[in-house]
Amino acid sequence: MAKFFLLQTVAPDYRKKLFDTIKNNLGDNFILAAGEEYFEHTVKTDKSVSYRKNIKNCFLFNRKVLFQIGMWPDALGSDIVIMEMNPRILSNWIILLVRKFTRKKTVLWGHAWPRGGKDSRSDILRHGMRVMASTIITYTKTQAEELREKIPNKYIVHAPNSLYYTHEMRVGKNTNPTNIIYVGRLTKKKKTVLLVEAFAQIHDKLPKDANLIIVGDGEERKNLRKIIKMYKIENKIKLLGHIGDYNKLEKLYEDALFSVSPGYVGLSITQSFGFGVPMLISRNENHSPEIEAAEQGENSIFFQTDNIHDLTRKILNFYNEKKIWIKKRKSICENCKNNYSIEAMAKTFLDLYN
Known about the structure:
alpha/beta; 15 strands; Rossmann fold; 36% helix; seven-stranded parallel beta sheet; six-stranded parallel beta sheet
């Protein structure tokens, strides 16, 4: 049987269900290799992915670029290789070149465009990788369609960027949720400071049992602690750190009226919708492609970017329209379940193998 080799920078907990599903279907024909830490050192490999081959990530130039070692026999010899579509991983260029020369199937998986967008200068490098690949997998249908316009002769598919199985995507039993939740990395680009300051201004206008729950880790955590202490609202804002456990996250979302993305939207948008929780989103950000899941007034509301007054106003609006949003929870969940499940994501990879 063909060997199916998936090479990753890391194997984080939020990808475990995808890897497990592929492993359960392909058995020993599936090989997963990953290092310990991502470019952002707070993103680490989940130790419970026991079948992973451990390779070494060698970061260079202040973690701007990466060279991986320890995976070369599998990377060059496997029948099918899937790698990240990231020009900063120098070793991937070598693998692409060698496999192109030996006419072996090489698949690139990731964001179709750089963070700067499809007109970004750096897309020249990414396009160089795309040209050498046999197949490209994007995170969203929209990006796959955009990419087909640029390279119509390339085989391009999408694997919806998902976190949960369909049976795990469900609305909690709490019929009176009051909290606000943020899940994601604590970085300046995510703008969690803006959210904390907005909450500090209006917390006394919210229900007494309404708390701001912040789940995640990053360089802004210490700064957030200082701001929370300065406003003397330690009893209203919970900094919980990174949580990967599904049951804990499910309970946190069950008690949340809505989630917030004060900076650019990432994978947490489908996580929120999967639990039926709508999201308040910064409008003019360089969002990740998962933003395609947002539907104004149906599962999300947008506020003016970096405008704390509009942010506070929209937060208050959520509470004023609480009954409406609670009624929408089931439809938000069902729509997400139909489009962003682990089963749908894994099917793209298994179809490539078959």
